[in-house]
Every structure is written in C-alpha cells, then in structure tokens.
Design a protein that fits this description.
With 254 residues, the protein is α/β, with parallel strands linked by helices. The protein contains seven helices and seven strands. The protein binds nicotinamide-adenine-dinucleotide (NAD).
C-alpha cells in the first residue's frame, strides 16, 4: 500500500485517465475524492472504487469555477481530514487551425486546461501548507512540447501547464510541496479524441508504436505521489512511447 493514510483529489476523474489514476490511488490505500463536472458519472466511478474495496467519494467540480474549487478542497478535508495529493487531470481537447480559431474556442480551452489547473493548485497548496506539505501532479501533454496541426489552443494550454508546473515547483518547494507533470502520448480512453487514421499517424512517430494505456499514466502518477519520489520537483515525465524523443521512425527499424 504505497498511499496508505493519504488523501487525494483527482479532477476530471469520472472517466478516462483521471478514473484510472483514482482507481490506482484507491487500490494503494488512498482515500480519493473523485471530482468531475459530470457528477452522475463521478458518483458511478466512486461507487465502483468503493465496491473494489477502496475509499472514494464523489464531488461535483467544474475546475473553472473558483467557488466550486474551494468547496471541493473543503469537502476533501471535511470528509477525510486532510489533503495530501492533487491531480490536475480535467482537460478538454479541440482541433482548430489558427486561421479558423474563434475567441470562444480559444478561451474555453485555456480556461479549463490552464486556468483550472492554477485555481485548483492555488486552493490545494493553501491547504497543504497548513498541513505541512503535499504533492501536485499536473496532466500535461506531448502537444504542450511539440508543434502540431490544429493544436494551437490545446498545445498552448498544455505548454502553459508545463510552465506553471515549473513556477509552482519553485514557489511551493519551501512548503514541502512537490509539483510535477505527466505528459501522456495518445492514450486509449472511452471517448476517443482522434479518428483511427489520425491515431495511426501519431503512432507511426513513436518508438513504441501502440497507444498508451490509462493504467500506465496511473503508474507514473503513483510514483510522483508516493514516498519513492522524494527529491523530484518541476519535472515533466513523458509517458509517450518515445514520441517526444523520436525523429524519423521507420516501422522496420532500419
Ligand atoms: N487521452 C489522451 O490521448 C491524452 C493525451 C495527452 C493528454 N491527455 C490529457 O489527460 C487528461 C484526461 O484526458 P482523458 O483523455 O482522460 O479525457 P476524457 O474526456 O476521457 O476525461 C476528461 C474528464 O474531464 C471532465 N471535465 C471536462 N471539463 C471539466 C471541467 N471544467 N471541470 C471538471 N471536469 C471536467 C470530463 O467530464 C471528463 O470526465 C486531460 O487533461 C487531457 O488533456 C489525454
């Protein structure tokens, strides 16, 4: 049990990568607040984790709403007594070329992916400072590190998350809060974010040419949340099958 007696809040945890992280943390002994804008699905997820022997509670949280963010942190503390770990996972994707970008689309992506991460981190860090420390794990993306067609808003939001990770690592270090990011490559989730043709193009640029599994992201999050991660802060851990490392990759290895 690598997270025994720890309390974690995962945003966007009703499904996908967030759900896998919540499940792994619960299996490792953490009490988990399963938060999501979709409360009904968050409730189902929390019930499933409880049914598997974990401790989990659902919470309605739209990460763009400061009042809901404060309420979610209070909920974690009232329900489980403290908050040790925040995973900023809630995120949305759209594809639009810059020439076609609307201001609404741009602002929506930035507000959820980047502003939401800042609001949740700010509120959680205040609680963690009172408690003597904690961990913040931000789910970024390979799109925050590389150019890509149609990824202006999404990529800029995730590049912002990566820089925010660095800034918070520096600012929160003296409070014993470690702040790291995970940058997933294309990951198999219930609601696919790309067509299979688009997915094939991405896979062809990876050293390990298969989709990432949510459980593999959860394993990286577990490492960053646990005691094995003692002096690592401000780091971006790519879980991307070598996408960010790769240049030209031929299928035959030649
Ligand atoms: N799936 C991938 O290939 C991939 C790759 C790289 C990075 N990511 C990142 O991983 C994270 C999770 O992605 P996923 O693929 O599991 O997505 P998903 O769509 O399966 O799940 C995202 C969850 O976030 C919730 N959500 C959306 N807006 C919200 C808001 N304003 N407040 C709170 N919750 C909200 C949704 O209800 C949903 O349950 C995102 O940050 C995404 O950018 C995903």
């Amino acid at each position: 049990m690598r997270l025994k007696n720890k309390v974690a809040l995962v945003t966007g945890a009703a499904r996908g990568i967030g759900k896998a992280i919540a499940a792994r943390f619960a299996a490792e002994g953490a009490s988990v607040v399963v938060s999501d804008i979709d409360f009904d699905e968050a409730t189902l997820t929390a019930s499933a984790l409880g049914g598997s022997g974990g401790v989990a509670a659902p919470c309605r949280l739209d990460v763009t709403q400061p009042g809901q963010v404060l309420a979610a942190i209070d909920f974690a503390r009232q329900r489980f007594g403290r908050l040790d770990i925040l995973v900023n996972n809630a995120g949305v994707t759209t594809r639009a070329p810059v020439l076609d970008m609307t201001l609404d689309a741009w602002e929506r992506i930035l507000r959820i992916n980047l502003t939401g991460t800042m609001l949740c981190s700010q509120a959680a860090a205040r609680a963690m400072i009172e408690a003597g420390g904690g961990r913040i794990i931000n789910i970024a993306s390979i799109s925050g590190q590389r150019g890509g067609s149609g990824r202006a808003a999404y990529g800029a939001s995730k590049a912002g998350v990566i820089n925010l990770t660095s800034v918070m690592a520096i600012e929160f270090g003296r409070h014993n809060i470690l702040v790291n990011a995970i940058a997933p490559g294309p990951t198999d989730v219930e609601r696919a974010h790309s067509t299979s043709a688009q997915r094939q193009v991405t896979l062809s640029r990876m050293a390990i040419q298969r989709a990432v599994q949510p459980a593999e992201i959860a394993s990286a999050a577990l490492f960053l949340a646990g005691d094995d991660c003692g002096m690592i802060t401000g780091h971006v851990l790519n879980v991307d099958g070598g996408f960010n490392t790769a240049g030209i990759v031929y299928a035959d290895g030649a």
